[in-house]
Amino acid sequence: MSQSAALRLRLVILGLMCIPALTAGGCNCGSRDGSDDNQGLPSPGTLQFSAAAMSVSEYIGTVTVQVNRAGGSLGAVDVTYSTSGGTATAGTDYTAANGTLSWADGVTTAQTFPITITDDLLADNAETIVVSLTNPTGGATVGGSLTITLIDIWTKFPGNPVLGPSAGSWDDGGVLGPSVVQLGPNSYEIFYQAGGTNFNDSIGRATSTDGITWTKTGTLPVFTPVRPNGAGLLTAGTFDDDAILRPCVVYDLSAPVNERYRMWYTGFDLIDDGMGGLALNAVGIGRATSPDGITWTPMNPRNPVLTNGPAGRFDEVAVAFASVINDAGNLKMWYTGFNTTGPSAIGYATSTTGGASWTPNATAVYTGGGAAFEVSGPSDPWVIKDGVFYRMFYTGERPDATAGQVVWNVGYARSPDGITGWAPFAGNPALTPSTSGWDSTDVFFPCLLRDGTSLKVWYTGTSGNGATGRDGLATNP
Ligand SMILES: [Ca+2]
Ligand SMILES: [Ca+2]
Ligand SMILES: [Ca+2]
Fold it and tell me: What domains sit in the chain, N to C, each tagged with a CATH number?
């Protein structure tokens, strides 16, 4: 029996004598009032993409494409999919994909297939892949093509800034150095550096359901330097006597209960320089732990967990601005190393003690991409492990036209192992100051997070040198 004969027989058995493909001029007999559009009529159906267009991150790794079977499920059907066009190039921007999707008789479950996207570090802005469906079998028809747009740039949230100082509060001097922790799909916490006229830089905390609208929560600040109110400021103390900067908080369910939250921060101690001014007595990277993000315990005694390297090393003067990840049970840190002779550089260290002590690499792992925005060196790294890459956002510094001042932009680089092969994005800086508004002078202190199929970066911006800091959000796509 031929396929069409079998089909017809089946329809006869079902008591329906109308087969659109065999009836000239179409058929409305599936409806008693003649107004139906073939719904309810047994048909092999239409195979079509779940959407005609989608925008995805170039950093997504793999995009999943969905094909639906709609309008019928009669018989077994196949369709061929293939990446077939667009401005993106197969082999360099994505891996060409083609294959066959099959549905059994009576089955309408959506089918999916992956397309592997290549993060090529080139500044493309937006490139497209066109995906087609061809050669339907079993009498099925196909819908239109799918256009996938690959996005490699960052879009600032129009409602920025998302977090700023509260007038008259402890943090009215500025809110900087965001560190965002995601607890669940609609649960975020942010830890930030802030201070004001009566408070040295300390750590605040806020919560959010979307990463945009933040509620400053509980008694703040949640963590302070030894002299939070400045009394005795000029007395020599611990490395974190007078200020706590740039927190990096790691929420880790594999850690002991009282260390579910671990914070690494930069502390410094000021003393009297003997000439009526301030001198920097000590600086280093510290650690504090918390069961809940609210109550924090510093190291006891309050010593740094990483300090400057020996004379001649890239970090001979100071280490600061740590970014830490738990990489499959291994704690890894990237930090800024400062020296007397050249630009700052990014160092790397590992820990087997829960981050209470660190072993640094003897050499820097990233010295910047050589672009104009970072001639004074990269700083403030923030690293995530994301698919096959370690991705770093960092602050690039260059001299300002005004002597003694600098300009900060944010760059992006990635590495296959977090240590070697750090390669910068050709479109750097990835984030620049806006032409006007709250972040029109500097953007710095990036915090990168993978959130589903998006990458999000919170960052600090200012308008005017030395102006009050606020934090904004940018996303890709
Ligand atoms: Ca590309
Ligand atoms: Ca690109
Ligand atoms: Ca002091």
Answer: 1-41 (no CATH), 43-151 (2.60.40.2030), 155-476 (2.115.10.20)
pLDDT one-digit tens code per residue, 221-268:
999 999 999 888 899 999 999 999 999 999 999 999 999 999 999 999
The three-point CA angle 188-185-218 to 5° equals 25
Q: Is 466 exposed, middle or buried (0-12, 13-18, 19+ CB in 10 A)?
A: exposed
CB 285 within 8 A of CB 266: yes
Which one of the ligands is nearest to 425 CA? 2
> Which pairing describes strands 297-298 and 318-327: parallel, antiparallel, or unpaired?
unpaired
Strands, E assignment, 104-232: 111-116, 126-134, 141-142, 146-151, 155-156, 175-184, 187-196, 199-208, 215-216
CA of 150 to the centre of ligand 1 (A): 8
What is the rounded distance in angstroms from the CA atom of residue 218 to the CA atom of residue 17? 71
pLDDT digit string (tens) for 325-377? 999 999 999 999 999 999 999 999 999 999 999 999 999 999 999 999 999 99
Rounded to the nearest whole angstrom, what is the distance from the C-alpha of residue 137 to the centroid of ligand 1? 35
Ligand minimally distant from the alpha carbon of residue 123 = 2
Contact 188, 208 (CB under 8 A): yes
Q: Which amino acid is at 48?
A: Q
How far is Cα 246 from Cα 243, in angstroms, rounded to an integer? 10
Render pLDDT for 15-73 as a digit per residue (tens, 0 to 9). Answer: 333 333 333 333 333 333 334 455 557 999 999 999 999 999 999 999 999 999 999 99
The CA distance from 101 to 52, in Å, is 18
Report which DSSP code applies to 19: -
Centroid of chain to Cα 234? 40
In the predicted model, what is the mean pLDDT of residues 119-142?
A: 97
pLDDT at 304: 98
Q: Which residues are paired to 449 by β-bridges?
A: 456
The residues near 420 (Cβ < 8 Å, ≥ 6 apart) are 365
Structure tokens at 181: 């922790």
Q: Are 19 and 3 in contact (CB under 8 A)?
A: no
Query: What count of Cα atoms within 13 Å lies in the side-chain half-sphere of residue 376?
Result: 14
Minimum-distance ligand to the CA of 94? 1
Q: How close is the Cα of 424 to the center of ligand 1, in Å?
A: 14
Q: Which ligand sits closest to the CA of 121? A: 2
Closest CA to 4 of 73, 69, 71, 75: 75
Please report which helix (H) or strand (E) contains residue 11, including its range.
helix 3-13
Q: Can you read off the two tokens belonging to residue 455?
A: 């990458």
Does residue 278 or residue 176 have the better pLDDT?
Answer: 176
Q: What is the pTM of this model?
A: 0.89
Tokens standing for residue 313: 């090393």
Rounded distance between C-alpha atoms, residue 43 and residue 362, angstroms? 69
